[in-house]
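[Automated response] Your request has been received and processed.

Submitted sequence:
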Amino acid sequence: MDIQMPEMDGYEATRQIRGKESENKDVPIFGLTASAYSHDKIKCLDSGMKGVITKPIRRQQFLNQISQLLSSKNNWQQKSISGISQSDDSFNNRDIPIDYFKVIYEFGGNKKLIDSVINQFLINVSSQIESLRKALKRKDMETLRRDAHKICSGALNLNAMPLAHKAKELERHAASGNLELSEDSLNNLDKDLKKLIQFFNKKKHEPDV
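Generated structure:
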C-alpha cells in the first residue's frame, strides 16, 4: 500500500479496508514508503498495516518480511515495530549514477528486462522534468512536490541514488514553498539525469558477464 496516493492516502485506505472486513482481519497490508522516519512507520502500523517496506524495495528484504509474516502471524506487528529504528541506506552510494549490477540482481539477473525498464524510466523522467519546469514557471508547488516524489520513488527502486537524492531535495523545497531553492534543485536534478543517461548508454552496450 503506497502511503502517498492522490485523493486518499495509504493510511486512510488501509483503515477503510480494515473497517469493511467482516471475517478476516488479518489480510496482509504492507505500507510502502520512502520515509525512514520511525514515526511514519509507526503511523503505518497504527492504521492497520501488517508491516512496512521502505523504498527502495530490496528483493531479499521483501522475501524475508513475507517469510516472517507467514511463519509467525501473532508476532508480526511486534517484529515490525522492533525493526523500525534501523537506519535506512536509501540515499547511500551517491558517487555513481546507478548501481547497475545491483539492480540487475534485484530483477533476477534479467539484463534485457532491466535495460528496457531503465530506458523507459529515463524517457519518463525526461518528460517529467519538462513538466516540472512548466509547473515552476506557474509557481505550482504542489505539482512540483508530487512529481518530484514520483521521480524519487522510481529512482530508488532502480538504485539510482544520486537522482533520488536530488528529487527528494526538490520535493522538500517544493513542500516548503521555496521557489528559488526549488529551481536550483530542479536544475541539479536535470544534471544528474543527464549523467545517468550517459552512464546507462555506456553500460547497456557492455557484454554480459
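Summary generated for your ticket: The first strand starts at residue 30 and ends at 33. The chain has a mean pLDDT of 79.
If you did not submit this request, please reply to this message.
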